[in-house]
Amino acid sequence: MPTSQTLRPGGGWRPAALLVKLGPFGESGLRLVRRTMPWEWRDVASQPLWMVAALVLALVVRAQRRGRWDPRACRVGLRGRTAVVTGANTGIGKFVALDLARRGARVILACRSEARGSAAVQDIRQRSGNDNVHLRILDTSSLASVRKFAAGILKEEKQLHILVNNAGASGLARSITEDGLELSFATNHVGPFLLTNLLLDLLKRSAPARIVNVSSANHWYGEVNFSHFHGNNLNYRMGKVYSNTKLHNILCTNELALRLKGTDVTANSLHPGMVMTEVMRNYNWLLRFLFNLVGIFFFKSSEEGAVSTIYCAVAEETEGITGKYFDGDCSLVLPSPSARDPALARKDFEFCDQLVSNL
């Protein structure tokens, strides 16, 4: 019986179809009968072309991860300036603190873990050559911790020029804090909101000063529902809670910028890009594995992810800019329509202000 053949990847032929006779008495005519070919991993792996193409694509994407602004080319010095960076013991926050220390600033690392924070302080001091780097304990999920931290800063520091609200977490389990707040909302938004407001007078006295709030492009998937703050009506699938908190970050930053008009204190929010950090540490092992596997080729490192935050904190190009949203390429971009709603921003800010006043 005649057959049609195809070339196997990597060499060798195999049948792809059968030609069979038509008719009960052997009449002339042939009918093509397709046979489903079994797909095997070795068939793909034995063909090097796709692997080479994928590697080239990954290298191209990796080379393009760097933004248009290079902090190493920025000559802005910060000697005599004081900065606070939350969540600075690892990831983006640590590299932001390192950059500020290299510029000569007095840098205060606000960290939840004393052990990890102390290790980060020693590492930053050694790498920057700046011994004026210090640790203060802060857990943004606890309003008592936030108030204690802020009281210490107000007592010890005569000035504050840069506040970077970087601390945050994704994938936290459903939980209510001692303040009656949903854990993700307390950690990612309410704590940073209260901290900023407690330090506002010091920032104003130290002007020009900058407030930088690290948000996320995930805010596009977020929604505003004030019952969320107490853990009600929340969808915990696919990082939805995290997205909601990041939307609140931008809304309150925009409203804060309006309220700070004329004070020479600016407030901006940003998306750092897709970054290989510990943000996925609260997800199951499979999601972490996939995230890290893809991230090796396509995501930014923590050092690269810190660039847009540093840009907002020190760059001459961002001087005087306020109430804006930057992407991971250090470009001014529009956030989601909800994040651009001034009435919603005002309502959100007032709700959060009243919330922390009552707790």
From TrEMBL:
The gene is LOC114786198. This is Retinol dehydrogenase 11. The keyword Oxidoreductase applies. Pfam families: adh_short. Keywords: Oxidoreductase. Belongs to the short-chain dehydrogenases/reductases (SDR) family. The keyword Transmembrane helix does not apply. One of its GO terms (molecular function) is oxidoreductase activity. Transmembrane segments: none annotated.
